[in-house]
Structures are given as structure tokens and as C-alpha cells.
Design brief:
The chain is an alpha+beta fold and about 450 residues long. It has two domains: about 260 residues, no CATH class; about 140 residues, no CATH class. The protein is about 25% helix and about 20% strand. The chain contains 13 helices and 13 strands. Strands 7, 8, 9, 10 and 13 form a five-stranded antiparallel beta sheet that branches. It is globular. Pfam families: DyP_N, Dyp_perox_C. Belongs to the DyP-type peroxidase family. This is Dyp-type peroxidase. InterPro entries: Dimeric_a/b-barrel (IPR011008), DyP_N (IPR049509), Dyp_perox_C (IPR048328), Dyp_peroxidase (IPR006314).
């Protein structure tokens, strides 16, 4: 039987709505009982999801469908949660065992020192102890919320958990559905591995996507560098990173308008702002890479799955700055071995659209942003490694350039953020990013077990 039969995490699961129940385990016996009798039979397996994707029965991601009643469910546990369940073996990932709150300073999150302990400026609920999370996905909001309600009732009966926080999210309305709140198409560049996200019958969504070993996502499989040291119960599990990232959308667009006009004075203000935004992100709003179309958005590229992700970066900043978000995230040919640090993203926006009173100031008055989600077998070599690149002004390495590329102008979190290459005519000129346009407001690291391990948890361990 293939690994798909055992794997419970499904990072490729299409969705239009996503719900998160963060919890503490109050009663271990009651928790095990409800997991066994109610939850585990409803857990989505990778085999189940992959089969539906191959049969093309899933609606497209992002678009609600009242006729589609399928609801996906996964569960993950923090290091503290695993300890509550007597799973105390070391998983050989220091970030996971510390937890994201203790890791926040290393990630560049804003915060302050209190009695020698760093306290991130997160929403209060994320500062509490979190033992686990139920992750529920749906295309039919009524079915999704009904599932959430029934799950709560099942645990209320056994007194197994205490809810810490509930979060309901959805994609942006059409025609902005594929875009995050800054307006840029999301979810294009993802690693693929055969038999899990594509096979001979189901081609990769985008040509040019890196094909990696399954162990980059699943523990104990080929490509997992800690394969020989994982405890048996960790096999086919995956680390799940959750981050709440607040986006200051009016402020970001005002920044593009002001600086775009300075860098590209011959263009109309909106066109200049769009071009600067494209160089900061590395893609135009449609998803067209600036490498393939430096001067204008080109829908013939963004609409073509064979072209939109099929490119390499030049070894200068003429078409794409080294500090562009896409290149900092995944430098492709400009950093040999960069595939070793990839992870599988499955993010979703939260909050409503920007309103007129926010644009007038311009100032963010309502909470909105991105729920950043990703899966990997190593947080240290995956998410955390990449996050630290955003705040490394000397990445990529000096053999590509003489000047410091600077920081990721979107996700970099240092106060003196700058980037070079924004101006193609003056590539060493520094663009100062000013205030952070993205603020981390909470998060945690979770381990998502295999079905076999969930069954062991539900009985006893």
C-alpha cells in the first residue's frame, strides 16, 4: 500500500472556506475517546483527496459551491500537545520543540523583552498555550460551519478539550479570488512530488515546478534528512506551520504610488505603482513573472500553466531584483541546493476588503491579511530558513553581485528595511521600505500525524 494510505495531512486540498479550532486538551481520556469514536473516521487522507483530484470531482479552489458537500478535516499537535498525549520523543527539529512563540524573535516578529523573555506583539489569544488545532476545509460554507458545530458538540460531551481560539477564513471575492490582499496572485510556485500531488494521469498544475522527494514534506520518507532518527510514530507525519500575518494594504499601495512615480516618472501614476509592485514581488498582479515580462503585465503568460512558473532568474537585477519576494522565497538557479529548503504552502486570506474610509487616509482600520500555512518535514530547514532569508540583506550570496540586495520589502521586518534593484536603471540605488507592511500577529508549529498514529493516540500510547 502506498504512503498515501497512511498520510492524514493534505496540503493540496482545494477549498473555498477554512476554519481553525485551536484547543487545549482538558481531559486526555475524553479526548482520546472522542478522537476514536468521532474525529478519526472524518479525517481526510491524502489518498482520498488525490483520488478526487485525479477524477476532477473537486471544484476549483477559492470558489464557493453550494452543491459540493465534502468537508476536509485534519488535526495537528504542538510540542506541548504531544507531551499531554505522552508522545515525548525528540523529533529532531529544535524550532518545533521550542514552539513559535519562543521562536518569534528569530523570525523577526515585533515584540519586547520582559524579564529577559521576548514577548511578541501578537493577538492575546495566540500567546496562550495551544495544544492542537483542528483544520477544516469546505466549498460549502453551511456544510463547513455545520461540521465545526458538530465537532464542538462531540467534544463538549466528553469534556476533552477547551477551545482557545476559533478562526473562520475565506478567499477574496471574484475577480480577486486568486489574489492576496495586496492584490498579487498567490499559490503558484509550489514543490511537487510524484504520486502525491501529480502522477502520469494527473499532470502538475504548473510546468517548471520543482519536483522533490516526498521526504521534504513527509517524515521518514526518501529525502527526509532525519529519516533514520525519527520515532516510529512520526513516520508519514508532517510539520504544519500556522502564521497570522496582518497586511497594511492602504499603506502599501500609498508607498507604491509615491515611490513608483519617482522611479518611473514617464509612466502614468497607476502604471508606475504597478511596475514597482511587480519588481518588489517578482510577479505582476496576474502572476506573470517580471523575468518573462519586465515592463508590463502579460495575461498570455499568466493564463498559460506551461509558462507562468517555468523560468530561471538572471544573474543580475535587470529584470528581477535579488530582494524580490519571489526570489528571496525561492531563488531557483541563483542558489544551488535551494530545493532542499522548499515547503508546500496552502495559505488563505482573512478579513474583508479595503473600504473607502481606509483609502482616504490612507490607513488600515480593519484587521485583514493572510493566514500563512505550510507543510514540511523540517521547520528549521524549511519555513524558518526561508523566513530568515527575508531579513538577510546579503542574500543571495556575494558571488552574484557587488552590492547588498537588501531585505524583502514586503515580509522583511527590520526597521531599516531597504532593497536594491527596484530601479532597473539604477540597480544599486536603495529603496527604503519605511514601515513594515506585514505584521505577525500569532502562530504556532504543529505536528500532523499519520492515520496510524492518530489511531494509536486514540487508544493510548
Amino acid at each position: 500500500m502506498s504512503l498515501l494510505s497512511y498520510t492524514s495531512s493534505s496540503p493540496g486540498l482545494p477549498k473555498a472556506f477554512e476554519y481553525f479550532i485551536f484547543f487545549q486538551i482538558d481531559n486526555v481520556a475524553g479526548f482520546r475517546d472522542t478522537m476514536r469514536s468521532y474525529v478519526i473516521p472524518k479525517i481526510s487522507t491524502a489518498r482520498e483527496v488525490f483520488g478526487m483530484m485525479k477524477n476532477k470531482t473537486f471544484p476549483p479552489s477559492g470558489f464557493p459551491n453550494d452543491h459540493w458537500e465534502y468537508v476536509g478535516c485534519s488535526v495537528g499537535f504542538s510540542s506541548r500537545g504531544l507531551a499531554e498525549l505522552n508522545l515525548t520523543d525528540y523529533l529532531h527539529d529544535e524550532a518545533f520543540h521550542r514552539g513559535q512563540k519562543r521562536d518569534a524573535k528569530d523570525l523577526g516578529d515585533a515584540g519586547s523583552e520582559r524579564n529577559g523573555v521576548f514577548q511578541p506583539d501578537w493577538d492575546t489569544k495566540y500567546l496562550e498555550d495551544i495544544h492542537g488545532v483542528f483544520q477544516i476545509t469546505a466549498h460549502n460554507n453551511n456544510k463547513g460551519t455545520e461540521f465545526v458545530s458538530n465537532l464542538r458538540k462531540a467534544f463538549a460531551h466528553s469534556a476533552g478539550i477547551k477551545q482557545v481560539l476559533y478562526l473562520s477564513t475565506k478567499f477574496r471575492p471574484d475577480p480577486h479570488t486568486p489574489q492576496e490582499h495586496f492584490g498579487f496572485r498567490d499559490g503558484i510556485a509550489k514543490p511537487e512530488f510524484k504520486g502525491y500531488t501529480f502522477d502520469d494521469e494527473l499532470p502538475m498544475k504548473f510546468a517548471g515546478s520543482p519536483v522533490v522527494d516526498p521526504g521534504l514534506i513527509l517524515m521518514g520518507r526518501k529525502g527526509d534528512l532525519e529519516k533514520e532518527r525519527r520515532p516510529s510514530w512520526a513516520i508519514d507525519g508532517s510539520f504544519f506551520v500556522f502564521r497570522k500575518l496582518k497586511q497594511l494594504v492602504p499603506e502599501f499601495h500609498a508607498f507604491l504610488q509615491e515611490n513608483g512615480a519617482k522611479i518611473f516618472p514617464t509612466l502614468k501614476p497607476d502604471a508606475a505603482a504597478d511596475k514597482l509592485g511587480a519588481r518588489i514581488f517578482g510577479r505582476w498582479k496576474s502572476g506573470t513573472p517580471v523575468v518573462l515580462s519586465p515592463d508590463r503585465d502579460d495575461k498570455s503568460i499568466s493564463d498559460d500553466p506551461k509558462r507562468v512558473n517555468n523560468f530561471q532568474y538572471p544573474r543580475d537585477q535587470s529584470t528581477c531584483p535579488f530582494a524580490a519576494h519571489t526570489q528571496k522565497s525561492y531563488p531557483r538557479n541563483n542558489l544551488p541546493g535551494s530545493n532542499d529548503h522548499l515547503f508546500r504552502r496552502a495559505s488563505i486570506p482573512y478579513g474583508g476588503e479595503v473600504e473607502a474610509d481606509e483609502l482616504e487616509v490612507p490607513q488600515t482600520k480593519r484587521d485583514r491579511g493572510l493566514i500563512f500555512l505550510c507543510y514540511q518535514s523540517s521547520i528549521e530547514r524549511g519555513f524558518k530558513y526561508t523566513q530568515q532569508r527575508f531579513n538577510n540583506p546579503d542574500f543571495p550570496s556575494a558571488n552574484l553581485r557587488s552590492d547588498s540586495p537588501g531585505y524583502d520589502a514586503v515580509l522583511g521586518t527590520t526597521l531599516d528595511r531597504y532593497m536594491t534593484g527596484a530601479n532597473p536603471a539604477k540597480q544599486s540605488e536603495r529603496l527604503l521600505a519605511g514601515i513594515p507592511f506585514v505584521e505577525a500577529k500569532g502562530g504556532e508549529y504543529f505536528f500532523m500525524p499519520s492515520i496510524a498514529t492518530l489511531n494509536q493516540i486514540a487508544t493510548s500510547y
